[in-house]
Each structure stands twice: as C-alpha cells, then as structure tokens.
C-alpha cells in the first residue's frame, strides 16, 4: 500500500461528500413538494405524465396501497422487458445475427433489471441489440433505481410524520425520482463519460484489421448513456461482457474515479435527505458515518490483501512487487481497484473493474461479506437507506433492553410488531443465500458450472446467490450461470431479495407512521452520537457474523490458510 494510493481513495470519498450534501438537501425539497431550480422546466412534463396515467397527486396511499402499486408497476415492467427480449430478432436497431433471447435467460435478465440487480448471464455486446439495450435495459436502470428511492422516501416519511395512515404516493415519488434526480444527473454524467473516451453511437461496430492481419469486428453502441445510469442508479449491468474492466466502458483512471464517485453519490446523499425530512440532519449524518466507517475499513482490508500478493504465484517465480495483479487492469492500479471492489459491493451496484475470481481469498471475502451484510454500506439507491433503518430499529431495541425501557427511534416507540417485521426482513437474505447455495452444492448439474473445486468452488456458488439475493449483480467470474438451473434459482433469489425484503419494511413504516411522536425523556437512548454509531456497527457485524461465518469459514477463510500453506485446489 502507498501514500499515493490512500490519497486517491481519500480524494474520491471527499468528492462524494462535497456533492452528496447539496444533493441530499435538493432531494428533500423535491420529495417534500418544495420548489427547486428545475421546477419551472420539469413540472410541466411531470404533469403530462400524471394526466396520461390518471394519477391524482393530491391523494396519498397507505403502506399497503403504496406497496401494491410498486409491485404492480414492477410486474408490468418485468413482462414488457421479457417480451422485448423474446421478440428481439424482429425488432429494429438490431444486428441481424442477434436472435431472440432464450426463455430462461430472458426471465433471469428481466427479473435482474427490474429488481436493480442487473446480473448478466450473457455477453452484452453479442446478445442484446441496441433497442433492447436502450428501450429495455437502460429504461429499467432508471425505473428500478427510482423505485428504490421512492421506497426510501416512504419509509423516511414514517419517521417524519405523526399519527397518520399514509406514506405518500408511489407514482408521484417514482416520477419525481426519475425526472428531478436521475435524469438530469445522468445527462451530465453521460457527457463527462463521453469526454473521457466512452463511446456514444448507434453504430453496431466497426471492422478492423489487427497487426497480425486478422479481421475483427469491434462492438460499439450507446455506451456512455448506459454507463451513467448504470453507476448512478447502482445498477451495474455492463454494455460489454467485461463490464467496467472494458476499455470502452472505463477507458482511463479519470473515468474509473468518476465511476466510483457516481456509484456512491445518490445513496450517500439520501442520508442527508433523511436527516432533513425528519427535522434532524445529525440523524442522517450518523447513518452515513456508520456506513462509511465500515466501508473504509473494507477498502483497507481489500487494499492490503491484494498488495500483499499471492504466495503461490511468488513460488511460481512471479515478481511480487506489484502485489496480486492477476485479473486487474494496470491502468487503474491496486488502490483504485481495491476501492472499486469494496464500493461496488458495499453498494448494490455490481459493476466490476477487475475479475473477483482472481482476487486473493481474503480479497474475495471482502466483497462477499459486504453483500451479505445486506447491501447497506451505503447500499443500493434507496434500498441502502431503508435497509440501514431496519438495522437502526434493531439497534435501538437492543439498547432499550439494556436500559430496561421501551425502545424509541426518532420519537417512535419500537414494539413487538416492528421487531417481528424487522426480523422477517432480515431473515429473508440468509434463507435465500444459504438455502440455494446448499442445494446447488449437492446437485451435479449445478456443480458442472463451476470453474473451481474445493473452497474456491464453494465461494463461487455462495457469491452467486449472495449477489443475486443482495441485488448486487456482480459475479465471481468463473461460474457458468447461463443454465436453466441458475437462471431460474438466481431469478427467484433476486425477487426474494428485493420484494420479500421490502414488504415487511413497508409494513414497519406503516405501523410507525400511525404512531404519535413522543418527546425524548431522560431514559431515551440517544441516537445522535458516537455510542449509537458504535452499537449500530456492532449489530451489523454480529448479525452478519452469526448468519454467514460458518459458510465463509468453509470457503474463503479456509482457502486463505491453504494458500499460505502452499496448497491449492
């Protein structure tokens, strides 16, 4: 590790903080219906959408109506995207060699993009035509991110309001998240990506002759525009198979830093939105500090693990001066690769600028564990905030047990109903991750898809189901996932991780919104200081450790000791 590397990491975090503060306050104004700089230009467009859809903006919804509207919207989105991929062969803007997508792959991909997972069991530049990329995948990059933001805002209102039965209007929140937040930021970011060398064209590709005299077709397309919302919306799906390791998606060090910055921006800003909407900006700041504290530690562990290198490669005669550079792009370096690995999995982005299957065992443990913690560091666009609030509810409950009082959070009493729902949400993730991994580990057809055996093979399976259930979408780059078994079970995992998780969270929000806010008393556990941050971090780590440590011990942890003992599979 070098000082220059740490300075690069610090510079990116600093740039995120500088931009997240004003963006967070701007989003609070947007979702509270206050005027912003863009209102006079965007509001007429917004009204047209409401009129066409028959939305009454003055009518708010209960938690159940809000949730059902969200589920219906995403159900229609899934069906339309599935149909678009199945009919690809007869659509325009489609290279003639591109056929319709197979049913199981179309199902998996449609679920993937609707749930903000963006898992891709295919090569983007040779499977999806431009119309599917733009009208299908890119559209859902916006809509899935906007859905996450809308849900986070609804949960925020539950803490901000007192004795009410409504949480806002899903259609209004989703529309405003798209028009006021994601679209303007994406236009700006797409221009910056294009300036850094990312292609933006409707050309299908160009034919070239290599230095060896071989003819080759280089795929092109509207890459910069998809790259922008891919990162801002923590989607992660790549236009090219190599994702952000591809020189067209991520051509240089500046585009790499811009990618990391844009991934962190909206999720970090939403903590400030939360603080402003509940009337106490320090409450949001506390959540961000807890998120970033764990994320920065993860970056450090990843950085150290990869710069320490792989002793097996050193024994084979490889120069260890650069650390473990297998599967990494030289143009990014170890520091920015380590930061990218941790950030993309601490978020629910899933974009990758290095192949995770080439990481050292501890280097691979970091992204795997970050996903398993629930994608809350700082998590997906919107989903990270409401996931962190579930952890905050669990934390104040534990603190209440310590002091012998009914726990409270932001003036709302946390009682048995909220705790049951919180535990239901928390248990969804290990049920899908560990359950499907256990079954796949016993099926010969599933094991045939592995590139590795032994502990590394188990890690491949565990990573795939963790990534799908956590709505991350990154792959360990070794698993052949384009099979009926994996397309089906990973699709189910994605749906459980998104919708089975958020339903009890919205039920918690509905229950809290109906409660009257109570003033703090001398026995109220303070949630604005260092003690709460420490307890919140402890709850997150203990929950993650209890649920996943046995599986991790059989995968990356045992592989680490085997590696240092000079053994491998």
User: Overall pLDDT, averaged?
Assistant: 90
What percent of residues adopt helix (DSSP H or I)? 55-70%
User: How far apart lie the N and C ends?
Assistant: 28 Å
List the total number of helices.
19
Gyration radius (Cα, Å) is: 23 Å
Low-confidence stretches: none
Globular, elongated, flat, extended or rod-shaped: what is the shape?
globular
Explain the overall architecture:
The structure is a single chain. With 569 residues, this protein is mainly α. The chain has two domains: 3-205 and 217-279, no CATH class; 283-564, no CATH class. The chain contains 19 helices and four strands. It has helices at 3-31, 39-53, 63-86, 103-114, 124-127, 130-160, 170-195, 223-232, 253-277, 281-308, 311-315, 333-346, 361-372, 383-403, 416-440, 444-447, 454-469, 484-513, 530-564; strands at residues 205-209, 215-219, 408-409, 412-413. The strands form two sheets. Strands 1-2 form a two-stranded antiparallel ribbon. A two-stranded antiparallel sheet has the order 3-4. A hairpin with a 5-residue loop joins strand 1 (205-209) and strand 2 (215-219). Helix 9 packs antiparallel against helix 10 and helix 10 runs antiparallel to helix 13. The longest helix is centred in the C-terminal third of the chain and has 35 residues, at 530-564. It is globular, with a radius of gyration of 23 Å. The two termini are 28 Å apart.
Secondary structure: elements and pairs:
Layout: H1 3-31, H2 39-53, H3 63-86, H4 103-114, H5 124-127, H6 130-160, H7 170-195, E1 205-209, E2 215-219, H8 223-232, H9 253-277, H10 281-308, H11 311-315, H12 333-346, H13 361-372, H14 383-403, E3 408-409, E4 412-413, H15 416-440, H16 444-447, H17 454-469, H18 484-513, H19 530-564
Helix pairs in contact: 1-9, 1-12, 2-7, 3-4, 3-6, 3-18, 4-18, 6-7, 6-8, 6-14, 6-18, 7-8, 8-9, 9-10, 9-12, 10-12, 10-13, 10-19, 12-13, 13-17, 13-19, 14-15, 14-19, 15-17, 15-18, 17-18, 17-19
């Amino acid at each position: 590790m070098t000082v220059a590397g740490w300075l690069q990491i610090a510079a990116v975090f600093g740039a995120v903080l500088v931009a997240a503060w004003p963006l967070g306050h701007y989003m609070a104004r947007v979702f509270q219906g206050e005027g912003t700089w863009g209102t006079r230009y965007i509001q007429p467009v917004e009204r047209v959408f409401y009129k066409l859809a028959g939305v009454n903006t003055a009518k708010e919804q209960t938690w159940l109506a809000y949730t059902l509207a969200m589920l219906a919207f995403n159900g229609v989105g899934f069906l339309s995207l599935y149909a678009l991929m199945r009919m690809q062969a007869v659509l325009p803007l489609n290279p003639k060699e591109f056929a319709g997508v197979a049913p199981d792959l179309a199902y998996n991909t449609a679920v993937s993009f609707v749930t903000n997972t963006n898992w891709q069991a295919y090569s983007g530049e040779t499977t999806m035509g431009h119309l599917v990329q733009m009208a299908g995948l890119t559209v859902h990059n916006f809509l899935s991110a906007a859905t996450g933001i809308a849900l986070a805002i609804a949960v925020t209102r539950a803490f901000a309001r007192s004795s009410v039965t409504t949480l806002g209007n899903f259609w209004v929140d989703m529309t405003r998240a798209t028009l006021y937040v994601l679209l303007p930021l994406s236009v700006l970011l797409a221009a910056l990506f294009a300036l850094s060398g990312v292609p933006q064209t409707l050309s299908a590709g160009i034919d070239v002759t290599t230095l060896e005299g071989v003819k080759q077709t280089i795929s092109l397309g509207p890459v910069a525009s998809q790259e922008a919302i891919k990162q801002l919306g923590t989607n992660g799906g790549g236009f090219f198979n190599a994702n952000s390791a591809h020189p067209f998606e991520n051509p240089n060090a500046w585009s790499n830093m811009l990618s990391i910055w844009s991934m962190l921006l909206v999720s970090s800003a939403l903590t400030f939105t939360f603080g402003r909407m509940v009337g106490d900006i320090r409450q949001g700041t506390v959540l961000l500090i807890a998120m970033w504290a764990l994320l920065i530690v993860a970056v450090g562990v990843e950085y150290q693990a990869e710069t320490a290198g792989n002793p097996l490669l050193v024994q084979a005669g490889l120069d260890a001066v650069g650390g473990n550079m297998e599967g990494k792009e030289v143009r990014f370096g170890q520091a920015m690769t380590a930061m990218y690995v941790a950030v993309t999995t601490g978020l629910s982005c899933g974009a990758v600028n290095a192949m995770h299957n080439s990481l050292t065992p501890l280097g691979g443990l970091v992204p795997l564990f970050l996903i398993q913690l629930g994608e809350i560091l700082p998590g997906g666009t919107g989903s990270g905030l409401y996931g962190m609030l579930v952890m905050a509810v669990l934390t104040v409950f534990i603190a209440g047990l310590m002091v012998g009082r009914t726990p409270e959070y932001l003036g709302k009493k946390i009682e048995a109903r909220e705790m049951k729902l919180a535990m239901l949400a928390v248990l969804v993730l290990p049920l899908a991750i560990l359950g499907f991994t256990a079954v796949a580990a016993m099926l010969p057809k599933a094991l045939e898809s592995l590139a590795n055996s032994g502990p590394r093979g188990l890690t491949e399976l565990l990573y795939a189901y963790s990534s799908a259930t956590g709505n991350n979408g990154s792959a360990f780059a070794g698993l052949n996932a384009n099979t009926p078994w994996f397309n089906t079970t990973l699709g189910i995992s994605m749906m459980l991780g998104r919708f089975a998780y958020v339903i009890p969270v919205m039920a918690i929000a509905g229950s809290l919104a109906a409660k009257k806010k109570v003033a703090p008393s001398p026995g109220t556990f303070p949630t604005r200081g260092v003690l709460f941050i420490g307890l919140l971090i402890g709850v997150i780590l203990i929950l993650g450790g209890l649920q996943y440590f046995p599986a991790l011990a059989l995968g990356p942890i045992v592989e680490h000791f085997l590696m240092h003992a000079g053994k491998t599979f």
